[in-house]
Design goal:
The protein is mainly alpha-helical and 233 residues long. The chain has eleven helices and four strands; from the N terminus they run αααβαααβαααββαα. Strand 3 and strand 4 form a beta hairpin. The protein starts with 5 loop residues before the first helix and ends with a helix.
Length: 233
Amino acid sequence: MFNLSPEQIAKAIKSPLDNVKANYPLVKKELERYGINSDAGIVAALATISVETRSFLPVRESFWLSEAVRNRYFTKMYDIKGNPAKAKELGNILEGDGIKFCGKGFVQTTGRTNHKALSAEVGVDLEKYPDYLLKPGPAATALAHYFKNHGCATWADKAMHSSVQPCGFCPANGLLKIGVKPNGKPKYRRPKITERVCVECCWKTVRRTVNGGLNHYKEFRQSVNALLAELAK
């Protein structure tokens, strides 16, 4: 049973203690409500928060940039005006949706479709009020909902119990080459939960499932290791 104190968590993931004290109970409650009770699942969630916000506060994506720079960035990244293909993928159908539905919370929920899908979970129409995800309670719900529905906790549990080393996914950094795209570039896929996967590639799958890639994976893994070390004491 996960029994780390806020002090231990704050030390392990290098987050401000006051924020951990205030928000960790909300996160743990929501994780448990979605059936995420294992040490590995909670460690994965906390390590994710450590790299997505570090402060243990729900934040807006790229919050450290000026508003003007952020608006240009979100238009280029997510808006129908600046990036039609990505906008369509995220359900951003109107100009300005890239800014309105930029990443928010502990897990950086992004896009109109993802905001809409969470509305019933938090009890607020997030298409109308997307900034509601900047509140700790709804942000905790969004994190737990994502972890449950995308298998993050399941992959964390697999990482804790895997005895495979190395695995067939190691050569491609946690992926498996399965062919070549029409443009000549290699085509890869992620592991399936039923396949033999080593510890490292399991944790890489957790990070990819949240991030889409391995951005800040080193820091994520450091947080995982630090939390596991505290649990072992």
